[in-house]
């Protein structure tokens, strides 16, 4: 999510609401640090420490329920995940006109996709990400009382609807390729025997933070969290890292993998461009959409 900022100032109504909680912050010192499909992210200073303010880009995404559930989850995970990994001390902020934001302690680090990891730190980072996955995926679903986490069937709830949304943009050749891919995934899924777990759901280099020593210091953007197939978090590694790095993460992950795991990861990463086609229009990102169509065309041609 934390891509290059688009320099949109923090709305004054939201700032005033944040100022009720952090009275020492000053509007002139607010810094936009990132933008995603449905969020803008800012950094503020309260005189003692920095805080992150995550706001909705449009009223379509400002439904209070999604913000409430994310804050509840972050505060739950604060006691489940090693300190400093997930956003800490999260609070929900509501402005007078009904807009919402989440504030949490600022994570002082750099996005994984913005740095080059030295070879001698690769193994350590893989262990740290594997440990985060293990802790997150081990969170007891039964203990998420009062937190409405959606239970997602990746094929039926995500990729089939996305394919229909994107159909007019991709042409018959790509559509038939993806339709066939989905049918194969359903066959694989019928043999899937592992329990569904709590997933981040949007792992990428943009959401993994490393400190000055290239250690994992934070994981952000839990807006797409779900209870689903744990392969989606591993597939997210391939958004910005190599298959060799994914292997290192898997080797250090303290759970077993079923025989169809790699097939599901392959499906998920091949379907990833579909997300950009189906939903980037909401973020007015035509370049990203065109890149995704081109990538799917290459995949379809390679599988003729």
What is the compact description of this entry?
The protein has 304 residues and is α+β, with helices and mostly antiparallel strands. Helices cover 43% and strands 14% of the residues.
Largest sheet features: 5 strands, antiparallel
In CATH, what is the homologous superfamily of the largest domain? Aminoglycoside phosphotransferase (APH), C-terminal lobe
CATH topology of the largest domain: Aminoglycoside 3'-phosphotransferase, Chain: A, domain 2
Distance between the termini: 34 Å
Hey, roughly how much beta strand do the residues contain? 5-15%
Q: Could you characterize what this model shows?
A:
- The structure is a single chain.
- The protein has 304 residues and is α+β, with helices and mostly antiparallel strands.
- It has eight helices and ten strands.
- Strands 1-2-3-5-4 form a five-stranded antiparallel sheet.
- A hairpin with a 5-residue loop joins strand 4 and strand 5 (100-105).
- Helix 4 runs antiparallel to helix 7 (261-279), helix 5 crosses helix 7 and helix 7 packs across helix 8.
- It is globular.
- The chain starts with 11 loop residues before the first helix and ends with a helix.
